[in-house]
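Blackboard transcription, Thursday session:
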Amino acid sequence: MLKIKDLFVSVEEKEILKGINLEVNTGEVHAIMGPNGSGKSTLANVIAGRDGYDITKGEIIYEGHNLLEMDPEERAREGVFLAFQYPVEIPGVSNAVFLKTALNEIRKHRGEEELDAVQFLKYMKEKMKLVGIPDSLINRPVNQGFSGGEKKRNEIFQLQVLQPRLAVLDETDSGLDIDALKIVSNGVNSFRDKNNAVIVVTHYQRLLNYIIPDFVHVLVDGRIVKSGGKGLALELEEKGYDWVTNNEAVTA
Amino acid sequence: MEKTKSKDWYLSSFKAIQESLNGSASLTTNGKSATPFHDIRKQAIARFEKIDFPTTKNEDWKYTNIAPILNYNFTPVAGAEVSAADIEKFLIPNLKTSLIVLLNGNFSPKLSKIHLESNGVRIESFRNLLRIEPDFILEHFAKYAQLENGFVAFNTAFADDGAVIYVPDNTIIDNCIHILNVITAEAENILSQPRNLIVAGRNSKIKIIEGYHSISENVSLTNVVNEIIIGESAEVELYRIQNENLNSFHINRTQAEQKKGSVFTHYSVSLGGRIMRNDTNTVLDDENCTANLYGLYLTEDSQHIDNHTLIDHAKPHCQSNELYKGVLNDNSRGVFNGKVFVRKDAQKTNAYQSNKAILLSNEALVDTKPQLEIYADDVKCSHGAAIGQLDEDALFYLRTRGIGKEEARTVLIRAFANDIFETIENEALHDYLNNLVFAKLK
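(Written on the board underneath:)
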């Protein structure tokens, strides 16, 4: 589904990603862990298509297409979804209207019929229940005045409504208390199936207790220095990131 | 032939028409050389002769060069032929109104549909009332709008018709009153100078819509003066919608005078016009008054919009809220100058002002100037200005959800603009304004 090959990315002349290789297949959940400043969020943003990143080398192939040549909206319509680390507040645009517009753009792209207001409301209600989104948040402007937890929950709600094929979760666990963490994880787990894939970007192992990954990759200073199964996350939690960085130094 | 200098042109047309003006005409034939009303006009034309139209050397007109207006000799046109079907598109859907139609500034009895809801309410033509009840007009006319610039003097000198609204004490008018101004297609270079007078009695409530539209694409000049007297505890809402064609010029002076505990809420929506200048002033002349001034302007091509406001806190315990927003495209230019005076007497004043604009092109420009003059020491005053581009983060966020770039831009611009209308409770009016904005942004 997704192949990242030897990817080098700079921001304002500073090299952030230094040769990333990663392959994600349908049905898989990959966790990317790493200390602050290791390039995790850069990777997530590059996949989603944010401006301001120079791809100096390498490529990303998504479903056989060159992802880096696609506009962010094309990526979204083809099924790429980024749950933002810092969801953006959009005053004056109601959550419901925003989501209906987005869903219908994606449906149009897939050659499906657009949903009318009544159909959309019915569909949305089901998804709201799943992620525990109250009515009050639906009619408010997107993310405006939402608490940190509500914003993150709103991201997962959008994930559920839009049903992408590849979901990238950027630090979705940050700022969540344990109850919110469970709700968000449930939202992600009920999304998972054999036809889609999830990349979980996180600093802490905590989230991975609820969203169990198939693979764990450790990103340090722009490189994946270690990959393994879900056990690697626990090991990291116990030994800290120093353990892999030192380890890398030894093997280098 | 070379064009006559604008000032001379208008001075000579004043001479030509002064004898025929209504109100004065009937009285001049009695051998009296002037009526009190005509005296005011004569003072105004003398004032106009002295000060002429403003230039950019005048501090208040520094950013607005009206020279293009002086390239034309504008002429009033009476007796325009317009059908109800011609103006249908300017009406507000699903809104019950009393309709006053002014064609090129002249009251049209044929097209107006006035409902007088209760005793004593007057919704009339200025010209008519001047004929049958000159004392009412004289009590207020030119008492509030000072002749500090050439345009106000110009309007006052030629004051002939417009709308007069009077609401007696303790009277609430449920229907909105729509003063629909239409520039007809009869001629080129039409001059329209409506003179409106609104008097709201104690404890009264009215909502007034002032719409400005043109039927053709011809060049025209509208130069309007509103005087509004708001009685004790009365509430006046005034919606001004400038939607004339892009070749037109529009100059407006709105002067409100607020009595104790009154509320003046004003929405100014500027969409159409090559040069638009609004001076919106209110005097909070007694305690516990509230003034809410909201403005929205959307400009394209080389449109120029200048909003000047003056909130005069003359007495204590009053509050004012001011929010102006603009969206500017192409080479268009916006000016915002918000004066707030807090007089020595006006302790416990609360004054809030904000001006925000989005520039959609590199060529668009906004000059913004908050001007607070505070002479009292126990007050709360704040002001802010934010001029910038569309929020790139918000744009990216919408795009990552599948919404195309252009659509995302439109969504954000609409949201920014429509925010101004959030406080409008009347649904039909709210929808109408939203749709106007939508149509302009397309």
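Lecturer's comment: The interface with chain A takes residues 391-394, 396-405, 407-408, 411-412, 414-416, 418-419 of chain B (CB under 8 Å).
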